[in-house]
Amino acid sequence: MGTRGNVGAINPDGTVSVRYVHSDAGMDYLPYALASIWCKTFNRDTHAMIASLLEHDWADLDPTTRADSTTWAGDIPVAGVGMHVTRPLTPGPVTGRPDTVDAYGLMFLLDPTRPDELIITDGTEANLANATVFALSIGEDVFIPQR
Question: Which of 31, 70, 76, 86 has the fewest CB atoms below 10 angstroms from its CB?
Answer without folding.
Answer: 70
